Amino acid sequence: MVSTKQDPYEIFLLATFLSLALLFSVNKVYSPQYIIWLTPLAVLLMATKDSSYRTERAWFWIWQIGEAIYHLGIWQYLAEYSGGQGLSEPLYALTIVIRIITLAGFALTVARARLSLPSKEPVKD
Predict the structure, then answer these.
(1) What is the Cα–Cα distance from 115 to 103, expressed in whole angstroms?
(2) Reduced to 3 states, what is the DSSP secondary structure of residue 30?
(3) Quick check: is 125 in a domain?
(4) Does residue 122 carry a pLDDT above 70?
(5) pTM of the prediction?
(6) Residue 61 in domain
(7) Quick one: average pLDDT of 66-78?
């Protein structure tokens, strides 16, 4: 019987990224530095395998655009909240949904690519 063995470094990176992505998505507070923590992990994950690099890179940029939309939206919402002309509450909620969906899309793409690939070296049992 031949089984596959994943690189522990790659599994650790994936588990760390997915754990933090989940935490940041369901946490009641979303700080701007969260994107600074996740982006280097995402780049390291994309550098470990090249099987679906194009798809991962596309989803990476979709996620970054989703983050940019959210960061523009939060400041517009705060302007509206403080009495100025800005983003309404339903539109702000939409920016939150966009951010979470794009992050989930990227995380799913990376996880599927990492967990479905065979190992470099098969181990015989």
Answers:
(1) 18
(2) coil
(3) no
(4) no
(5) 0.81
(6) yes
(7) 94
